[in-house]
Each structure stands twice: as C-alpha cells, then as structure tokens.
Amino acid sequence: MARHVFLTGPPGVGKTTLIQKASEVLKSSSVPVDGFYTEEVRQGGRRIGFDVVTLSGLRGVLSRIGSEPPAGKRECRVGQYVVDLTSFEHLALPVLRDVTKENRNHLLPDIVTCVQSGRK
C-alpha cells in the first residue's frame, strides 16, 4: 500500500526542519529515501528567496526577489520571486522521474507554499 505525506503549514512552523530530521532518521536506519525540499534564503535578516535542496545534498537556486531570469529564458514569477526553472528542473525533476512502484513509498515531499505579493 502506498503511503503519502503532505506537509503544509504557515511559514516558520518547522516543515523543512521536520523533513530534514525525518530523512536523517530514516537514512540512519538504512531506509532508502529520496526527494527534495525548499529552504528559505536570507540576507541581512530579510528573506530574498528559496533554494531547492535534494536529500542527496545537491542545492540550487529556486527563486530570488527581483532577480532576472537566465539569459534567453522566459521569466516565471510567483509574486515577487523570479523562479529559476532550469535549476529546479535539473535538481527536482530527476527525483520525480525516478519514482518507481518499488520506491514511491520512500519519497519525502515538501509542498511549496507560494508566497503571493503583499502576503506574509
């Protein structure tokens, strides 16, 4: 039987911390895990964007405030954030593509809450 966990909640309640700790416990118990989560990026105490982090330790830019899209790429925005689709596709899509009947129970999904302009 497939097991899926959807973790949602307002900013700052510990969703990412829970995923990090749960994946550490599972890995230390020799349970295979794969997946990714998003992590807030701050500068001078102010949120400037998000990174996508795989459970294997790879990290890349997911979005930044007011940054420009990569040259030759169309701009994708979520509120005030410009999304780096190339980085997301490079890191997150392989994890999703590698889901098989045998390993689908071992994914730890993180539901990304999109921050809309003017909302905290």
Automatic annotation (TrEMBL):
Protein name as catalogued: Cancer-related nucleoside-triphosphatase isoform X2
Natural source organism: Enhydra lutris kenyoni (northern sea otter)
Entry GO MF terms: ATP binding; ribonucleoside triphosphate phosphatase activity
Keyword ATP-binding in record: yes
Top-rank taxon, per record: Eukaryota
Pfam families: NTPase_1 (PF03266)
Keywords, sorted A to Z: ATP-binding, Hydrolase, Nucleotide-binding
Keyword Transmembrane attributed: no
